[in-house]
Write a structure and sequence with these properties.
It comes from Gordonia prachuapensis. It contains 27 helices and two strands. 72% of the residues lie in helices and 1% in strands.
Length: 517
């Protein structure tokens, strides 16, 4: 078949019937299995098609996925767009769907369509289990008997799952419209926490909300609880809200379902939010309860998270020696379990605690090991984010040149190589502080305009407040007292818009304030 006939520019009104005839002829020339796969591919809105998808949809066929793929490529009904990646033209999809409707009863078609979504979602969930084996609902205590995946296996699963993001988001939207509750819930559960807290999966929010609604509709309170937890993480990561309302709703879901592991897991998140709200003792009590329950049911790995968060809470409270003790224990636990991602996260917190307690020079090794640990599992984004903390530490330690080099590098990596404008803007704020507080450059004030614009575009109030405070500090160092006064007033106004007072503004204007982002 001539592929040019599929292009839009050649598909005019007069040659439309001819194209349809050619496509129909090509379809009829296919073997039974290839025809069936083509119809199944058309039943779901796959953006990209990879060999594993064809393999997943071949649940009752005799031919191998490779044989079917070769036949579809030879017929030009599928087109290779790059190595290992294929697409189906919209005209081919229209034909395949019409054939599915004409060749199957409505009941058969509905069941097959649901099976397509379900098979895809199950395969995706398996990938998340490899990435986060300790986390329910796809991992956790139920998977404790399974061997821990090797770091290389986790890294491959992460790259693979990230590559399927477009398909996951599209299928979540489509599954919600079709009322396919279980596939939709599976897809919502397939998104790793470590992906959500990067801030790069925010477009999954409508699907996660729909999944929560579907879980409620079918009275699956546990599934609803996990969806609400993901919702809270998305909201908090983007700086829209603390997510407390969603977390408290999640806890009620787990209590209703008598899901002990889910309850313990969400108590960790609730303790963290209580800490953000400076409810110190309730936060500590909640985190201790979470840790104790998780250890009791055998999920020692996940129990390291509330242990880590207790360390962060003590750091926020000003008890830095206690923070160091708990964070060191958490690091040891993550090392024992070869969890180099959460080891990196925790080493960064430990570095911050040492910085606050013992001085910035005592934290250098922790930050460098944290960055190395994150790079080892391919988490370049969080390695670059950790470098922001490291750069701030070096500035305070009296090493502005090294701080500037590190902050320049991570700003460029985040903005260009990784394509994360939000964290790139946060790095630029710290770089401006080096240029303004150390080098006394007027341009450092103007350089803050771009980050402020970025944060306003996503309505990230806490980040806007940080920028206003940074501007205040630089203007004060430059002797611009009037400008500093106006910036401080702006920071107070922004803080008030998300429930914070002047004490909060004062606290973030100091280099020794804890950073729990």
């Amino acid at each position: 078949m001539n592929e040019r006939m599929l292009s839009t520019e050649h598909h005019s009104m007069q040659n439309g019937p001819r194209v349809e005839a050619v496509l129909s002829s090509a379809y009829e020339a296919l073997g039974r299995d290839a025809r069936e796969i083509l119809k199944r591919l058309a039943l779901a809105p796959f953006k990209d098609i990879r060999p594993w998808i064809i393999d997943t949809l071949s649940w009752d066929l005799q031919a191998s996925a490779r044989e079917v793929l070769d036949e579809l490529l030879k017929s030009s009904l599928l087109t290779a767009i790059e190595d290992g990646l294929f697409e189906m033209h919209s005209l081919v999809g229209d034909l395949a769907r019409s054939k599915a409707v004409s060749e199957h009863s409505p009941t058969e078609l509905s069941e097959t369509t649901k099976r397509v979504y379900l098979e895809f979602s199950v395969r995706i969930v398996d990938a998340r289990r490899k990435i986060e084996p300790e986390r329910p609902p796809v991992g956790g205590a139920a998977s404790a008997h399974l061997p821990l995946p090797m770091p290389e296996e986790q890294r491959e699963a992460e790259i693979w799952l990230q590559s399927e993001k477009a398909n996951i988001v599209r299928l979540m939207t489509s599954a919600a419209r079709r009322d396919f509750a279980r596939p939709l819930i599976n897809l919502a559960h397939s998104i790793p926490t470590c992906f959500i807290i990067r801030g790069t999966w925010s477009d999954s929010l409508p699907g996660v909300l729909a999944a929560a609604g579907a879980a409620k509709e079918i009275s699956d309170s546990s599934a609803e609880g996990y969806c609400m937890q993901s919702l809270a993480n998305i909201v908090r990561t983007n700086g829209w809200d603390s997510g407390r309302e969603a977390i408290e709703s999640s806890l009620q879901c787990f209590l209703k379902a008598k899901d002990i592991e889910g309850e313990a897991y969400i108590r960790n998140d609730l303790g963290l939010v209580m800490m953000y709200d400076r409810e110190w003792q309730p936060a500590l009590d909640m985190l201790v309860e979470s840790e104790n329950i998780l250890r009791k049911i055998g999920n020692v790995h996940l129990s390291l998270n509330p242990l880590r968060n207790r360390g962060i809470t003590y750091m926020e409270m000003g008890n830095r020696s206690k923070a160091i003790e708990l964070l060191e224990r958490a690091c040891e636990g993550f090392r024992d379990r070869r969890d180099y991602r959460w080891l990196g996260f925790t080493l960064s917190d430990l570095g911050r605690a040492r910085y606050l307690d013992l001085g910035p020079k005592q934290a250098v090794h922790d930050f460098e090991e944290a960055i190395s640990s994150l790079r080892s599992v391919g988490d370049d984004r969080w390695a670059a984010v950790t470098a922001i903390r490291y750069g701030q530490c070096l500035r305070v330690a009296g090493e502005p040149d090294k701080a500037r080099d590190i902050l320049l590098a991570c700003t460029k990596e985040l903005q260009e190589a990784i394509g994360d404008p939000v964290w790139g803007a946060r790095a630029l704020v710290q770089l401006s502080l080096v240029n303004g507080l150390v080098d006394r450059k007027d341009a450092a004030v103007r350089a803050l305009d771009a980050p402020m614009q970025t944060f306003r575009s996503i309505d990230a109030k806490s980040d806007q407040c940080e920028v206003a405070v940074a501007r205040y500090r630089i203007q004060l160092a430059l002797g611009d007292l009037e400008g500093a006064r106006l910036s401080f007033e702006e920071a107070i106004e922004i803080a008030a818009s998300f429930g914070k007072d002047v004490e909060y503004v004062v606290s973030i204007s100091e280099d020794d304030h804890p950073d729990v982002r």
